[in-house]
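Try this one yourself first.
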């Protein structure tokens, strides 16, 4: 293994990072500049490889572009990877779905995500994702990549009109987490 990356510093994204590094001690840990400075370098006890917005790296036949997305899905350090060869967007917690769902779908992942996040609003996971002035801008930036597949961490991955799904997700997040009247 040559590269390890994650969208933001949180236990379900990188809690086992040091175990992976024990198995692959020469692997690059790839993260945002903010992530490296505020969490990752201290956690792993060495320098990580930081990427700036739009920066790319290759892993043989695949080429990945880093997309900085502060506070989307969660923290200041957030960002996602877009694999340019197959046009797959690694979405992290975007499009979070609940339940035992199929691995890949062309069905409505936005509706599923909206329902899961709406249910979260009634419990301790309320305010799961902030809706900031950058949210719409970042989702539009991701849609402009024209992904063919959304690789979703929590729930079914999606093949279909991914740019439309990202636009619809913006409307859903605005309704759930945006300014309340």
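Now uncover the answer:
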């Amino acid at each position: 293994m040559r590269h390890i990356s994650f969208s933001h510093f949180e236990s379900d994204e990188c809690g086992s990072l040091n175990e992976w590094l024990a198995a692959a001690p020469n692997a690059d840990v790839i993260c945002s500049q903010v992530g490296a400075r505020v969490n990752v370098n201290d956690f792993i006890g060495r320098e990580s490889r930081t990427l700036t917005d739009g920066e790319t790296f290759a892993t043989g036949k695949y080429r990945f572009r880093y997309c900085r997305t502060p506070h989307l899905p969660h923290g200041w350090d957030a960002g996602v990877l877009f694999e340019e060869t197959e046009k797959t967007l690694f979405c992290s917690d975007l499009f979070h779905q609940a339940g035992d769902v199929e691995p890949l779908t062309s069905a409505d992942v936005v509706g599923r995500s909206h329902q899961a996040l709406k249910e979260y609003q009634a419990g301790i996971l309320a305010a799961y994702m902030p809706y900031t002035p950058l949210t719409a801008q970042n989702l539009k930036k991701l849609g402009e990549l024209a992904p063919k597949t959304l690789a979703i961490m929590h729930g079914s991955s999606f093949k279909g009109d991914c740019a439309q799904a990202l636009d619809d997700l913006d409307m859903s997040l605005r309704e759930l987490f945006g300014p309340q009247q």
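Discussion: The two ends are 49 Å apart (CA to CA). The longest strand covers residues 63-68.
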